[in-house]
């Protein structure tokens, strides 16, 4: 049975059909994923923890649920969870030395909701430490490789989640997105990744990085799967006070072909200096496709505050991070420096040895921006610019249903290329982070290839318009099929094809 | 914007973040460079613009104060590096500066 499953191509909705019709059991499907992991994991290194035993246990429970005739769309389907989302009894490291041995005593709300459906958690995915980074090279454990070219990065910070999906280690994954951390790796790995509206998915149990920007979302093989995951994880949660009390629609209902009547804008500021011309070209071609589908495209939209978004983001996000990461003191949990009797020395050494370079850099940057004498000039100023960026999007959405841009200015870059230049690394999020600043939803969908490397298209909508952006992505994928391409892991020979 | 060595050490102290000698030097250069490029924020006219602290504003979020299950003591203490009986053990605070 296992040899006949193309795990790297199998979607949630296809798996669900097979499970429901008893063509396949969840235990068989989980075993197939674990076999696939055994083959590809030594090459791509996307997973921090492989929870094989627990997963098989959950798969057995899922099979019993299916036998009772009460299965949901995620029942029995293996998922990879980013390692900053708490999983009860499974180590949750944030790819940091600080939390290397941290085993959460509770599940994040999203995990709880998936477990209610008897989803199978197959493991935890690698990431940039505490989600700070754009390449997964900042993982303190090991870097993850892009299956499309093993010399290149998978993007980040949810790099392990994106690789796990594209390489077939799991059927889908959860990630978190603070400045592009779902969309950018989704674009780099040729999968669909959505950052929902701020507050649409509970952040309870997501290890905090920048609380006003963080949001959990799905990484999937197609838009239908994205909708199915959202149906389960979205919704109000009393344990997250920023969670929005809104009802959750059936997101699959909006997925119909054709885009007649849609007005879509292409903001020119997103085609930035330093953007790879072939990437810009791929997105322009994608826009023409949307036009063919009946949408009206405005090629001359202007969002003049866009060039200030990067600086505003890198003041706000590190400021919030420096406050959130103050909790790592070596007392309650996590790494603890033991070799001193001095409280202050223990605290400082715990943080010196527990945090990696990028995390330290951002704590320093944030602490500076919040410190007396600099607060008004940096933090408060950035928050005011944030208001202007939000207003600009609000204004644009009075005219357009959605905006489209490249997800990243380039195709995946080489491992090591940007590690010594933090500003260059920050620039790889230049197209995605304005969305977090505004708190609005955006989806990245496969939109072409440049030199055999994937290009993502970002579709941006107004608050709570997930259905609109998913519909556009869906209609686009229906007529392009870029999202169906999967990498061939050459080193592994035919056994992984 | 050129950060001095003393400023880097002061920020590290505020964050209670130990840094190696090499990190102090590296951050001095890198943070100066990063802050330089962020100077463009000062060009934006933000007169009468209120700050955004939360992108989707909600206010006075309340919930019923109901008794519910919580973590057991064992679960709460499970990850503590040092403990004694039912307590997390900490270093002496008095007398420290």
Which strand order spans the largest sheet of chain A, edge to edge or round the barrel?
Answer: 1-3-2-4-6-5-10-11-9-7-8
Output the CATH topology of the domain at 2-260 and 484-491 in chain A.
Amidase signature (AS) enzymes
Q: In this structure, how is the largest beta sheet of chain A organized?
A: 11 strands, mixed
Average pLDDT metric of chain A: 96
- Model regions low in confidence, pLDDT < 50 over at least 5 residues of chain B: none
- Report the strand count of chain A: 11
Kindly estimate the percentage of residues of chain B that lie in beta strands according to DSSP: under 5%
Helix content of chain B: 25-40%
The secondary structure category of chain B is: mainly alpha
- Helix/strand order of chain B, N-terminal first: HHHEE
The CATH architecture of the domain at 5-43 in chain B comes to: Orthogonal Bundle
Count of helical stretches of chain A: 15
- What gap, in angstroms, lies between the N and C termini of chain A? 16 Å
The CATH H-level superfamily of the domain at 2-260 and 484-491 in chain A is: Amidase signature (AS) domain
Uncertain runs of chain A: 492-497
Q: Quick one: overall form of chain A?
A: globular
Helices of chain B, by number, come to 3
Average pLDDT number of chain B: 93
């Amino acid at each position: 049975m296992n040899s006949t499953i193309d795990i790297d191509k199998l979607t949630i909705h296809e798996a669900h059909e097979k499970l429901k019709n008893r063509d396949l059991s969840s235990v068989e499907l989980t075993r197939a994923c674990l076999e696939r992991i055994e083959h590809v994991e030594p090459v791509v290194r996307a997973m921090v923890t492989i929870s094989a035993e627990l997963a098989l246990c959950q798969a057995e429970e899922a099979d019993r649920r299916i036998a009772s005739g009460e299965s949901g769309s995620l029942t029995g389907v293996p998922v990879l969870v980013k390692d900053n989302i708490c999983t009860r009894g499974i180590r949750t490291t944030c790819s940091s030395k600080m939390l290397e041995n941290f085993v959460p005593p509770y599940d994040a709300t999203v995990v709880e909701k998936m477990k209610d459906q008897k989803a199978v958690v197959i493991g935890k995915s690698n990431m940039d430490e505490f989600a700070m980074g754009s390449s997964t090279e900042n993982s303190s454990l090991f870097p993850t490789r892009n299956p499309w070219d093993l010399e290149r990065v998978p993007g980040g910070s949810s790099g392990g989640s994106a690789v796990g999906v594209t390489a077939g280690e799991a059927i889908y994954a959860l990630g978190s997105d603070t400045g592009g951390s779902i969309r950018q790796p989704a674009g780099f790995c040729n999968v669909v990744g959505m950052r929902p509206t701020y507050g649409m998915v509970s952040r309870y149990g997501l290890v905090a990085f920048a609380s006003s920007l963080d949001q959990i979302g799905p990484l999937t093989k197609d838009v239908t799967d994205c909708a199915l995951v959202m149906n389960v994880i979205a919704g109000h949660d009393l344990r997250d006070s920023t969670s929005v009390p809104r009802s959750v629609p059936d997101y699959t209902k909006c997925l119909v072909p054709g885009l007649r009547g849609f007005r879509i804008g292409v903001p020119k500021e997103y085609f930035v200096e330093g953007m790879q011309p072939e990437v810009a070209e791929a997105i322009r071609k994608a826009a023409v496709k949307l036009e063919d589908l009946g949408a009206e495209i405005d090629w001359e939209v202007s969002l003049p505050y866009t060039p200030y978004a990067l600086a505003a983001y890198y003041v706000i996000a590190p400021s919030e991070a420096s406050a959130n990461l103050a909790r790592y003191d070596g007392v309650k949990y996590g790494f603890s420096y033991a070799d001193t009797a001095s409280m202050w020395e223990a605290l400082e050494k715990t943080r010196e040895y527990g945090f990696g370079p990028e995390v330290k850099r951002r704590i320093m940057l944030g602490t500076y921006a919040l410190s007396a004498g600099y607060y008004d000039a940096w933090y408060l100023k950035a928050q005011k610019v944030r208001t202007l960026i939000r207003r600009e999007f609000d204004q644009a959405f009075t005219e357009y249903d959605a905006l489209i841009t490249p997800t990243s200015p380039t195709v995946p870059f080489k491992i090591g290329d940007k590690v010594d230049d933090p500003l260059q690394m920050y620039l790889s999020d230049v197209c995605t982070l304005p969305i977090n600043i505004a708190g609005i939803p955006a989806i990245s969908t496969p939109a072409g290839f440049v030199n055999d490397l994937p290009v993502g298209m970002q579709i941006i909508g107004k608050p709570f318009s997930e259905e609109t952006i998913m519909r556009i992505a869906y209609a686009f994928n229906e007529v392009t099929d870029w999202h169906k391409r999967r990498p061939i892991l050459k080193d592994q020979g035919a056994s992984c094809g | 914007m050129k950060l001095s060595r003393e400023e880097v050490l002061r920020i590290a102290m505020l964050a209670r973040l130990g840094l190696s000698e090499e990190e102090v030097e590296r951050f001095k250069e890198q943070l100066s460079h990063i802050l330089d490029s962020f100077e463009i924020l000062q060009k934006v006219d933000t007169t009468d613009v209120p700050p955004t602290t939360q992108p989707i504003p909600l206010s006075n979020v309340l919930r019923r104060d109901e008794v519910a299950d919580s973590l057991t003591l064992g679960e709460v203490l499970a990850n503590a590096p040092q403990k004694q009986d039912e307590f997390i053990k900490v270093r002496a605070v008095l007398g420290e500066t």
